[in-house]
Design a protein that fits this description.
Order of helices and strands: HHHHHH
Strand content: under 5%
Structural class: mainly alpha
Low-confidence stretches: none
Radius of gyration: 19 Å
Number of strands: 0
Distance between the termini: 26 Å
Shape: elongated
Oligomer: single chain
Length: 127
């Protein structure tokens, strides 16, 4: 397997792992919420609040589905990868249905485009 084929899949997994780290390390712990409601809240609380606002308004799921639709309209491996990565991110941030759809569409599109890149020009039957 060529490294060019493997890298997008590793990056999708990394996006999902990063989203899980943000969710379980920054958003869900009660201690983090208490620190951010204190009078002298740390600077990273703005990032935490932005992430919470994003999943409350389904922003991650909507973005993932829009990019998945674009990946179907354009022949772009980057858009296909981005749809899969945003889908994995959206799954971690409570946007299950659109996240799952975008992850599926992005993954299938990426597989299709990777297969088209490596396909031989003509198939010769074995003798």
């Amino acid at each position: 397997m060529r490294i060019r084929t493997l890298v997008p899949w590793l990056l999708v997994a990394l996006a999902g792992a990063g989203a899980a780290w943000l969710r379980y390390g920054l958003i869900e712990p009660a201690a983090m919420a208490e620190r951010c409601t204190a009078a002298q809240a740390p600077a990273w609380c703005a990032l935490r609040q932005a992430l919470v606002t994003g999943f409350l308004h389904d922003a991650y799921g909507i973005a993932a589905v829009v990019v998945a639709a674009l990946s179907l309209l354009r022949r772009s491996r980057t858009l296909a990868w981005l749809a899969a990565a945003l889908g994995a991110f959206a799954l971690q941030f409570y946007n299950y249905e659109p996240g799952a759809l975008a992850l599926l569409v992005g993954s299938l599109r990426l597989v299709h485009l990777q297969g088209a890149d490596g396909a031989p020009a003509a198939v010769t039957p074995a003798r």
